[in-house]
Every structure is written in C-alpha cells, then in structure tokens.
Specification:
By secondary structure, the protein is mostly helical. Helix content is about 90%, strand content about 0%. The longest helix is centred in the first third of the chain and has 50 residues. It is rod-shaped. The termini are far apart.
C-alpha cells in the first residue's frame, strides 16, 4: 500500500510538473505570436502609408534635378573641362 501511494505521488508530481512546463511554453508561444502579429501590423501600416502618400513626397522631382545638373557648379565645371579640352586639341592639331 505504501509503495502504491509513493508511485501515485511521483506520477502526480511528474504530471503536474509537465503541465506547468507546458503552460509556460504556451505563454511564451503566445507572447511571441502577439509580438509577431504587432510587427506584421506595423509593416502593413507602413505599406498603407506608402500607398497613400502624394507622389511628390516619395518620387524625385526630375525637372528640379535636371535644372540643377544643367546650371549647378558641376555643370559649369564640365563646360570648362570641355572648353579646355577643345582648345587644347585645337592648339595641338594646329601646332
């Protein structure tokens, strides 16, 4: 009888231990699932915001960029280089 009680006690203790371990694992899984769902929602919101932005806010203004390239300091520097090269080639071919 005593041996049977010990076995019953041990098996109940093991069962409860596994049950609590399973609960802890389930809580961790639920927390991870909630975190991933929140992250997914945040990604969906960012995508929606990107879709509803006015085109000028997320697309380069090509005309402005073109004007800057044509009139900016780099354009003047390139014009100078072209002029110097043409003059030097002209002088070289004449000499």
């Amino acid at each position: 009888m005593h041996k049977t009680q010990e076995l019953l006690y041990d098996s109940t203790r093991d069962f409860l231990s596994l049950r609590f371990e399973h609960r802890d694992n389930e809580k961790q899984w639920m927390m991870e699932k909630d975190r991933l769902l929140q992250e997914l929602d945040a990604c969906h919101q960012q995508m929606e915001l990107g879709r509803h932005r006015p085109p000028s806010s997320n697309v380069l203004d090509v005309s402005k960029l073109h004007d800057e390239l044509l009139t900016g300091p780099l354009a003047r520097q390139e014009e100078f280089k072209v002029h110097v090269v043409s003059v030097s080639l002209g002088n070289y071919s004449c000499g």
